[in-house]
């Protein structure tokens, strides 16, 4: 049987990479303009381009944005995302430069060997190795460490999330679609599912982790500050998939545990 987190590591990395590539393709170069890194560009055309970035960048903030991290795992993912955006931007610039040079070359022949082995294989391979190493390093940092961190449960079923966490008297209580955790402390989520594969995701706290029937994945997270964090199922799991939203309530651990009565699962319910 796979060790806890083994399967999840691959899931996290795959999602991080795919999300990064997709968002990089969608936002570059507009993101750089709006973040003021290439403000030497002058002229009305560039102003129009910068203005066009505004609606795109509106998606960079908000409760479900990976670019508004509120915990160490989410910060690592955001850092990887920015690294991939910058890297893909530089490679795009390189390819466009080579394309321009080829068009201006007027048919003069050059050695193909250096291009194929140097740029085609060497450069591409180096970029992929660096990105793979970076994503593995970040994925490793997200694994549960086997220490005495608080453990909570997340059980996915069509179409709700059932959470288990310490209640006001310290005993475990089950809630539906709301998870209560102390802010500023690392905690591990034991994630599993009842029927089909779902995926636990709180974008502001960390990456995605699959919820698999008959298997338990551990996911280490932390919320830096008290607040309300939005979560959702990130794996299409059937016709009610869009209903599988949930809330993470991070409370001040120096104060009382909040009242959970509105979210408790009735004992009469199967
Ligand atoms: Cu789903």
From TrEMBL:
Q: Record's InterPro entries?
A: CcO_II (IPR045187), CcO_II-like_C (IPR002429), Copper_CuA (IPR001505), Cupredoxin (IPR008972)
UniProt catalytic activity: 4 Fe(II)-[cytochrome c] + O2 + 8 H(+)(in) = 4 Fe(III)-[cytochrome c] + 2 H2O + 4 H(+)(out)
Metal-binding in keyword set? yes
One Pfam match, by short name?
A: COX2
The places in or outside the cell where this protein is found are: Membrane
Q: Does the keyword Kinase apply?
A: no
Q: Which GO terms describe its biological process?
A: ATP synthesis coupled electron transport
Domain Cytochrome oxidase subunit II copper A binding positions:
147-263
Q: Which GO terms describe its cellular component?
A: membrane
Main subcellular location of this protein, as a coarse class:
membrane
> Which SUPFAM superfamilies does this entry report, sorted A to Z?
Cupredoxins
Domain of life of the organism encoding this protein: Bacteria
Q: Where are the transmembrane segments?
A: 20-41, 48-68, 80-103, 115-138
Keywords on record: Copper, Electron transport, Membrane, Metal-binding, Transmembrane, Transmembrane helix, Transport
Question: Which family is this sequence assigned to?
Answer: Belongs to the cytochrome c oxidase subunit 2 family.
Q: Return the protein name.
A: Cytochrome c oxidase subunit II
Organism from which the protein derives: Paracoccus hibiscisoli
């Amino acid at each position: 049987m796979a060790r806890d987190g083994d399967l999840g590591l691959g899931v996290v990395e795959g999602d991080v990479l795919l999300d990064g590539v997709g968002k990089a393709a969608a936002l570059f170069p507009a993101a750089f303009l709006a973040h003021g890194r290439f403000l030497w560009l002058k002229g009305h055309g560039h102003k129009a381009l910068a203005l066009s970035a505004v609606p795109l960048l509106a998606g960079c903030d908000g409760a479900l944005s990976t670019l508004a991290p509120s915990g160490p795992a989410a910060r690592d993912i955001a850092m990887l995302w920015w690294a991939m955006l910058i890297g893909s931007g530089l490679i795009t610039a390189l390819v466009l430069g080579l394309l321009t040079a080829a068009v201006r070359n007027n048919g003069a022949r050059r050695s193909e060997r250096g291009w194929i082995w140097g740029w085609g294989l060497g450069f591409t391979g180096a970029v992929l190795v660096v990105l793979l190493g970076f994503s593995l390093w970040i994925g490793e940092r997200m694994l549960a460490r086997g220490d005495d961190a608080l453990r909570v449960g997340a059980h996915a079923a069509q179409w709700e999330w059932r959470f288990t966490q310490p209640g006001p008297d310290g005993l475990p209580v089950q809630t539906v679609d709301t998870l209560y955790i102390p802010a500023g402390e690392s905690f591990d989520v034991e994630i599993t599912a009842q029927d089909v594969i779902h995926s636990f995701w709180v974008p502001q706290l960390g990456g995605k982790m699959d919820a698999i029937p008959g298997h338990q994945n551990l996911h280490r997270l932390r919320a830096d500050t008290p607040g309300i964090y939005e979560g959702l199922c990130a794996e299409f799991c059937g016709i009610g998939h869009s209903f599988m939203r949930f809330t993470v309530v991070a409370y001040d651990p120096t104060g009382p545990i909040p009242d959970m009565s509105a979210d408790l699962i009735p004992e009469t319910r199967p």
